[in-house]
Amino acid sequence: MYAYNFGPNHPMSPKRLELTSMLARELGIYALPHVGVEASRVASDSELATVHSAAYIAAVKRVGNDPSLSDPDRGLGTEDDPAFAGMHEASARLAGASLTAADALISGTAVHAVNFGGGMHHADREKASGFCIYNDAAMAVTRLLDSGVSKVAYIDIDAHHGDGTQNIFWDDPRVLTISLHESGLTLFPGTGFANEVGGPRAQGSAVNVALPAGTSDGGWLRAFHAVVPQLVAAFGPEVIVSQHGCDSHRDDELSHLNTSIDAQREAALSIGALAEQVCGGRWLAMGGGGYNIVSVVPRVWSHLMAIAAGRPVPLRTPVPPRWREHVLERYGREAPLLMGEDADIWWRSWEVGYNPSDALDRTVMATRKAVFPLYGLDPWFD
């Protein structure tokens, strides 16, 4: 997976995957009972074609074989998605890992699965976008549906709107896409507003919470709990697929949100609990965005893996010394001492009241008004 590399100055550095894997190993997550680590594989053209067109796949191969042949109309060779040798194979390998995870749920060999290298949610059917070449999230959802799963809920908590995944399932009533992200008024890709609710055959299948810039832990978790559990329960999926981009963290330079490690861990715990309540625990989790490669990404995704393994890592757990030494020697940076940040993640339940003068509450209410009635829910009280 480390071959997915747009170059040394690009934010999407493969170092974040290497450091995450090493931290998880040092924490003992890979050695936990019932945890298995599967080798990734390159997704086949026919598997990629369940989401992307043959012409687009051919274009990715062509540009990957000769990076001088950029194709900006398809988003290849742009500033966000620079061309690099082996682009097709590296991107298809990320997708193959998510397909392997989906297959484990389908076969029953796993109830929870994680591909922290995946979550490429901006890629559309015909175009790369936002550091994403192939949309592995959409491919995993499609694989689940093709296996006979009747409904899938896709929950995206990346700081950026999950536009590619939403677009792919825009008119498919079998898929509920929920995206909790910074407003498109202040952040790429400029989409994901409350009035985007799905196509004519699938009204209510797309749900968007466009958070105001500066939203911190309490507001972020308030918004999540005011929208996500109610709609997932009403939709009744057989599997939850989630994308855990951690670029909403206050120290990430590519967004303007203000969350902590602790809040993102809390959201992962809530999604895992929702899977237990609604779909027998069947849960496939992915990584996504996240560009603070030392302080944020490895901790958030190690927490995610530990939660999926049924052994959450306490926030006051010391970061393993060997990992900290590696970071200092390899990257010349001081790593954090603890797995958490001692953040105050208290959030105010929606049931205690709605404040129309608060921008966060107005955002949440706009989403609830747009979608809740389509599920027979009251936007004020449910």
Automatic annotation (TrEMBL):
Alphabetized GO MF terms: histone deacetylase activity
InterPro entries cross-referenced by the UniProt entry: AcuC, HDACs, His_deacetylse_dom, His_deacetylse_dom_sf, Ureohydrolase_dom_sf
Keywords: Acetoin catabolism
Keyword Metal-binding in annotation: no
Biological processes, Gene Ontology terms: acetoin catabolic process; epigenetic regulation of gene expression
Pathway per the UniProt entry: Ketone degradation; acetoin degradation
Residues annotated as domain Histone deacetylase: 10-306
Coiled coil spans: none
Family as reported in the entry's similarity comment: Belongs to the histone deacetylase family.
Protein name, entry field: Acetoin utilization protein AcuC
Species this protein is from: Arthrobacter wenxiniae
